[in-house]
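Structure (tokenized):
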């Protein structure tokens, strides 16, 4: 074996990974599992949470199913189900790997902004339904008052959300400008 090949073999573990990257790999794995657990606590299913956290923490924000499977040490079927769910709720997008038949999955840089923007549309739908409920039950009934207060809460949230999203866009643009300098 050549000296260069031997040095390379000395640096890799049983899976072919470079042993010099072990602290970074361990920190990445710990982050993925910790953040995924917090997403599960918030109501997300476990495997989609792990896949999303893994994509979010990848440098490119793009991984193939095989890469996700390897990094998370799970079956390709588990990854497939997770990315199907994440695609349906617009948390990741699927794209074709150039020159290949393999799909890649991408988490977008503005993921949280987009998620809140979609939530804004849902609040509008809830408000309309609540207005109908208040009208149907009557504002003076206990149920009608409860619905009216819920409606007022969502109207307040939507008003605040619009301003918050604009402030975020301004702040994000400043961060990007500072990063590019």
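Design, position by position:
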């Amino acid at each position: 074996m050549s000296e260069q090949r031997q040095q390379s073999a000395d640096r890799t573990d049983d899976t072919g990974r470079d042993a010099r990257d072990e602290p970074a790999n361990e920190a990445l794995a710990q982050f993925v599992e910790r953040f995924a657990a917090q997403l599960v606590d918030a109501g997300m299913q476990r495997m989609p949470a792990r896949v999303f956290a893994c994509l979010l923490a990848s440098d490119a924000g793009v991984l193939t199913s095989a890469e996700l499977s390897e990094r998370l040490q799970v079956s390709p079927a588990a990854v497939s189900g997770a990315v199907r769910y994440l695609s349906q709720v617009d948390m990741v997008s699927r794209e074709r790997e150039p020159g290949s038949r393999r799909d890649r999955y991408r988490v977008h840089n503005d993921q949280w902004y987009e998620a809140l923007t979609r939530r804004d549309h849902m609040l509008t739908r809830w408000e309309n339904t609540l207005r109908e409920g208040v009208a149907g039950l009557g504002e003076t009934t206990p149920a009608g008052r409860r619905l009216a207060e819920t409606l007022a809460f969502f109207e307040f949230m939507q008003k605040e959300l619009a301003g918050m999203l604009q402030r975020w866009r301004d702040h994000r643009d400043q961060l990007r400008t500072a990063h590019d300098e």
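Reviewer-requested clarification: Helices lie at 3-11, 22-41, 46-57, 65-72, 76-88, 111-137, 142-180. Residues 142-180 form the longest helix (39 residues).
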